[in-house]
What does this fold into?
Amino acid sequence: MSRLHTDAVEVQRHDDVPAQFLWRGRLYVVREVLARWTESGGWWRAAGVQSLHDGDSVAGGAAVAPLETAPLPSSPKWAQRAWGEPAPDVDVSVGSAGVDDGEQDWFRVEAGAGRWAGTGVYDLCFSWSTGRWSLARVLD
It folds into this structure.
């Protein structure tokens, strides 16, 4: 059986995975990471993307700014690789790259709230758009 939650938690990470988390005033120590996955959001459903796809200037009743395009600047000679590609550290992006697709990183962990307490299985979620962690599910 599982219980769904949307409780905010504080998570401390080690080697890019949760090591412990604070939930409802109790500190849980992660014993093992059982699974890890990433869910990309529905970036293709965003109004701007739909507008580009459909060729409309209006999406969802709100005016969408026209897509601005500009040629990429040529890289300086010192930033060229032997075969002519720009080096990866040369800034060649044009326009804003701030597409919030609602991407989330999920971790299913086995954790316990103390030496004598038993362990449980918890789904922790990190939302890239908000920069916050939440406890999404407790599995019994």
Remarks:
- Strands lie at 2-14, 17-23, 26-39, 58-59, 62-63, 104-112, 119-127, 132-139.
- Residues 90-97 have pLDDT under 50 and may be disordered.
- The longest strand covers residues 26-39.
- The chain is about 5% helix and 45% strand.
